[in-house]
Amino acid sequence: MPENSHKPAVFHDIIVSKNDILNCSYESWYSLFGAHAYSRAVVLPLPQEFIEYLESDDFTIPGEKSNPNPQKDSDWDYTPPSRPDPASRFSDLHQKIQETFKSFKYIAPKLNWSAPQDSVWILPGRTMKCSSPSDIYLLLKSSDYINHDLSHAFDEADSVPDKLQYHLILREWKEINPSLEFRCFVRDRQLLAISQRDLNYYPFLEDLHDTLIERIATFFDDVLLPKFGSNSFVFDVYLPKPFTKVYLVDINPFARKTDSLLFTWNELATMSPRDDDVVVRLVTQHNSGRFATKAHSQNHVPRDVLDASMDSSKMVEMLQNWSAMLSKESDETEESD
């Protein structure tokens, strides 16, 4: 029987250090490159009481009364008791958030590494555009991505820090053209690859191929490379018309948990760096089969929940009722035991 000439695929390890993860924390890189960020931001250290609130099952939203307008003909047969305002436990933070809204009309929140993009369905408009502290709390409480920051940020790292300060990042909301946002991959201090972030077909991007390489490579060499502490990382940039200025959006670890978009992580781990040939990958044709699924669609919810999301007070009420119902069922189960 003839030997198989094809070598088996090798799964290449990607080593991520604790410091690599810490360097990509927003407050860390923003202190170095804030002047190049697309949005202004206020960085607030989080007290332990707020972290405990995010991790709890309590969906009482600060500033919202518990079940303020119960509907008489509702299917719910249980009215939850009134609960104290959680903001009383982190009043200083709550006040600082309120003050930030005086400077920024709208805010897009995130924690150290992740933004709650998976829970935008819960707000009117289905974006991270928050107009009140309640909107911020609702997004954060409903997000699996935020839970990742709190519980799994160092899962791929070689070690875990003894202590970690979490931060709430309040970014000024600014509209962005998704077709002009790009993810850039750096390994061993070499810019390897660039992928468009929004995986829809935009014909005009093909004509920008050389411009993208020139602008982004210059930004990497002149701005990021001299100051950033990690040898390998992933950075997101925005290059709006007239395509003369590059804005930094975020920095992520060079790790498999970071979305590789139009590349595979095995490609990125084995790609030979070439100074004069950065690989740019764009969506080159409509492909409804591959890209029909919207980003974060795994977090989409039933229609009645979406309807409630058009009114934040109704959404809060629904979540409180849901939490109370589960609590009641748990109590009844314990009594039957």
How would you explain this protein's 3D organization?
With 337 residues, the chain is an alpha+beta fold. The chain has a domain at 178-285: 2-Layer Sandwich (D-amino Acid Aminotransferase, Chain A, domain 1), CATH 3.30.470. The chain has eleven helices and eight strands. The strands form two sheets. Strands 7-6-4-5-8 form a five-stranded mixed beta sheet. A hairpin with an 8-residue loop joins strand 6 (233-238) and strand 7. The radius of gyration is 23 Å and the shape is globular. The chain starts with 17 loop residues before the first helix and ends with a helix. Mean pLDDT is 83; it is low at 1-9, 65-79, 288-293 and 297-310.
Question: Quick gist of this model?
Answer:
By secondary structure, this protein is an alpha+beta fold. The chain contains eleven helices and eight strands. One of its GO terms (biological process) is eukaryotic translation initiation factor 2 complex assembly.
Number of strands: 8
Number of helices: 11
The CATH level-2 architecture of the domain at 178-285 is identified as 2-Layer Sandwich
CATH topology of the domain at 178-285: D-amino Acid Aminotransferase, Chain A, domain 1
Going by helix content, strand content and strand pairing, the class is alpha+beta
The major beta sheet can be summarized as:
5 strands, mixed
Task: Detail the poorly predicted runs.
Answer: 1-9, 65-79, 288-293, 297-310
Write the element-wise H/E pattern from the N-terminal end onward.
HHEHHEHHEEEHEEHEHHH
Envelope shape = globular
Q: Which CATH C-level class of the domain at 178-285 is it?
A: Alpha Beta
Percent helix range? 25-40%
GO molecular function, one term: protein folding chaperone
InterPro entries: CDC123
Region (Disordered): 61-89
Protein name: Protein involved in nutritional control of the cell cycle
